[in-house]
């Protein structure tokens, strides 16, 4: 039993350590996604959630940015494990944008965070850390 478990562990370690040359498309796809997703997707999300939706729920007063933030976090349904942290970390920026009635603040925040995460992810793939 221990030999079988050790063999599985060794196969997993070998799989994780295999050189990037065996997965050439992964780096190209990651870098390509980074370029196409850094600005367009956050911009579209911000235009909808803060530019379109937020003014339509303004009658909720101070609860409008809260609801907008929660709906934004729910919209990212493919990553439910980060729902709470997404609400906690995005709310201050969205509240600030709502308070000053300036969508550019939330667009800048969203594009900036997306840029950092996508760049770090691409670097991790390039260095074969993932």
Describe the structure.
There is one protein chain. The protein has six helices and no strands. It is mostly helical. The chain has one domain. α3 packs antiparallel against α4, α4 packs across α5 and α5 runs antiparallel to α6.
Q: Brief overview, please?
A:
The protein has helices at residues 2-17, 24-37, 40-56, 63-75, 83-100, 103-126.
Q: What are the SSEs and their pairings?
A:
Layout: H1 2-17, H2 24-37, H3 40-56, H4 63-75, H5 83-100, H6 103-126
Helix pairs in contact: 2-6, 3-4, 3-6, 4-5, 5-6
Helix share bin: over 70%
Question: Largest sheet, if any?
Answer: none
**How many angstroms does the end-to-end distance come to?**
29 Å
How many structural domains can be distinguished in the coordinates?
A: 1
Class computed from helices, strands and strand pairing = mainly alpha
β-strand number:
0
Q: Give the H and E element order.
A: HHHHHH
Low-confidence stretches: none
Overall outline: elongated
Helix run count: 6
Spatial extent as radius of gyration: 20 Å
Q: What would the average pLDDT be, to the nearest integer? A: 83
Strand content: under 5%
Defining traits:
mainly alpha; 130 residues
